[in-house]
Sequence to fold (47 residues):
Amino acid sequence: MPLISLEATPDLGVDLKGRAEYWVYRVGAYLLINVIDDPAWLALMFC
Fold:
């Protein structure tokens, strides 16, 4: 799936909204798994 489609589509705004939502969830999942679940970060939050 290319990041930017060069084809002229009438639903370009919907497509961009869907892609933005996909990347927000992807970045959120990355942060949840790799940053918040890090033992050092958890130690800093709860100490």
